[in-house]
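Q: Structure tokens for this one, please.
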Amino acid sequence: MLSKSRKAQKPGLASDNLTSQARERLQKAVALHQQGQLAQAEALYAEVLRTQPKNHYALHLSGVIALQKHDLQRAVDLIGKAIEIHPHNGDFYSNHGNALIQLNRFEEAVQSYEKAVAIQPDDAQAHYNKGNALKKLKRLDAAVQSYDQTIAVKPDFAEAHLNRGNALRELNQFDAALQSYEKAIDIKPDYAEAYYGRGLTLKKLKRLDAAVHSFDKVITIKPDYVAAHAERGNALVELKQLDAAVQSYSSALSHAPDHPNVMTQKSFVLLLMGEFDMGWRLYEWRWKCDRVSFSRRQFSQPLWLGDEKLKGKTILLHSEQGMGDTLQFCRYAKLVSGLGAQVILEVPKPLVGLLAMLDGIFQVVEQGAVLPSFDFHCPLMSLPFAFKTDIQSIPSEPKYLAAPASKVAFWQERLGLRKKPLVGLAWSGSHLHKSDSNRSIVLSDFVRQLPSGFQYISLQKEVRDADRATLQLRQDILHVGDEIADFTDTAALCELMDVVISVDTSVVHLSGALGKRTWVLLPFVPDWRWLLDRNDSPWYPSVKLYRQSTIGDWDTVLASVFADLKTAF
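A: Here is the predicted structure, written as tokens:
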């Protein structure tokens, strides 16, 4: 009833100038409150306040009941009044913080908890709650300090060890986080949440077998722990144990049948395995995910997924997610046009000039501009589902994009007289991509085995600081990324290359769509579109795939690529 750290206590009434009747009512109210009879206790507190409106005990405990009934603003107001009258009770500040934190007023909650622990330094719960509020504010170092203070007062506070581990994990201090989780488990051996946090941390450390084991422990303790089933599946994906991963996702869905994140994650694995029918179907759950990259557009016009006739209609096809996704799936515009539709394509500004020449397009509109009228709409990445695409029916023309002739001429002059075979290089994608650490390569590692006898052209528009330093040292690589205005420039450069060598970025999709010889470097578990155990792509006839055979081993991949380069020309 008071702060969670303390049992409800009988107020010290002797010095409070209460009438014997008021004292009796207050004592009875506290007893009822302790027994959980909130309505009766609240009525008696109200009777006390009618005769003594400034009784801080009755105000505070009325506020506690409001907090217990989730009447949060009333709790804040009542306990606040108690604090104004009697500002020296740590429990008052602690419960004030408890109400504020539930109202998401975290800064104010921190202030209340600070006052609570200043008065009662041995209040472990107040230190802990302060840590939780700081964690909500993403003040993670300060949160860890509060959890440390909690543990100093109460070393066996399992929840404090757990949340300390959670904060440390968010700070990427994984070894320290593991120690906190282990301590929580030592105190509370059946602590499912601690095993879950340990599993997430082990996964971050790429100790994937151990992560799976930790998630297994969670599920043994709490079989309906949906997130543990899902994260177990994610760890198994990284181990390329895909059938087992699908089973884990299915187990998660048996407890939460309409969980959009799990549905979407399962779709990725099914698509990677080439099970397109169910994969595309489940992929439509992406719109209900909590990931920012899956932000559904809202239109009054109906969504088209292949059912309605399009002859004589206008349809808006709109891009989603990354540039590479748009470049890959814009190929479907020709198929939509073939159904008798007038196709409007909305794409990000850097792609407008290039895709204006795409076959089957009536009009290209820059993303964010005013749209013309249309009858239906469809996100580009829903088109494979709409056309019931399988491996055999992928629309895989050798070349469906072209660079503007004027840009090709410009870059031909810019690069000068060709004396050696031209090799385009791209070694990293956006650092914001969720799999960037798996797909991008540090340039110094990428170029370590570069063979001589070629003119290397950097196709990177965005170069990280460490890579820029390497570029300055490598006179054999011409970097033109700072001169690239949009994708018409990148397309023209690709057109001039004898081969493009790239990790999985938009450059790959652009070069493949141009029909250029393209060699793609893939991690141990690639993005779903590259499928498994093949060195070609049904999406791009001109693409050759080079895959890691073990997690993180780029050296072997690069050695294979550059060995082939030496014999290709």
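A few notes: The beta strands are 314-318, 342-347, 363-366, 376-379, 422-426, 455-458, 477-479, 499-503, 518-522, 543-547. The longest helix spans residues 20-34.
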